[in-house]
Amino acid sequence: MEDLCQQVIDTYRELLNENSWASDEVKKKAIEKLDKIAIHAAYPDKFRDTSDIDISDCSLIEATRRIWMAETKHDMSCLGQNLDKDMWAEGFNILTCNAGYDPSANTINMIIGMMGETFYSSDMDVEEMYASIGAFWVGHEVSHAFDLVIHQPEHYFGRKALTEYIHDLY
Ligand SMILES: [Zn+2]
């Protein structure tokens, strides 16, 4: 999976280099961001310890409240801390059939839950895998690194150069 993701990123780099309408400076900055995308494949190397969340002996509603409170407490404890790149962003449940781009960490998250029939099978030809996982999932998520309206990269990286690059495009 990591190899496939890297191959898609490498293809993006080639396409950006060959782009005829963006300036060299814009292409350089886009490739700079592309090369900083971290690949999260299948499931995190580290999972957050949630053993302190006690949901025994309570109702479903109370359990949901306790989990929500623990999540909020955890989120608040992260404020001002350096990002742990081995941890995946909250909200990426590895059992869901989904993938995502996390703009705050510049990561693509290819969740193992999507690697079932329809999208992935060990019987697939390489071409089928490139089409389903490579193009549909990985290519799509990498494209979110260049979303202009939603992610506003300068907010996440504090790099004015990227803001200028965004403005160059419009
Ligand atoms: Zn999307």
Main β sheet profile: 3 strands, mixed
What's the number of extended β-strand segments? 3
Helical region count? 6
The distinct ligands, each listed once, are:
zinc ion
Helical percent range?
40-55%
CATH topology of the largest domain: Collagenase (Catalytic Domain)
> Any idea what the shape is?
flat
The CATH architecture designation of the largest domain is: 3-Layer(aba) Sandwich
Structural class: mainly alpha
Number of domains: 2
Secondary structure elements and pairings:
Elements: H1 2-18, H2 24-35, E1 38-42, H3 60-78, E2 99-102, E3 107-111, H4 126-143, H5 153-157, H6 160-169
Helix pairs in contact: 1-2, 1-4, 2-6
The structure holds zinc ion.
Structural features, described:
With 170 residues, the chain is mainly alpha-helical. It has two domains: 2-46 and 85-169, Collagenase (Catalytic Domain) (3-Layer(aba) Sandwich), CATH 3.40.390.10; 51-83. The chain has six helices and three strands, in the order H-H-E-H-E-E-H-H-H. It has helices spanning 2-18, 24-35, 60-78, 126-143, 153-157, 160-169; strands at 38-42, 99-102, 107-111. It has a three-stranded mixed β-sheet with strand order 1-3-2, covered by helices on one side. Strand 2 (99-102) and strand 3 (107-111) form a beta hairpin. Helix 1 crosses helix 4. The protein starts with a helix and ends with a helix. Mean pLDDT is 83; it is low at 153-161. Bound molecules: zinc ion. Zinc ion binds next to loops.
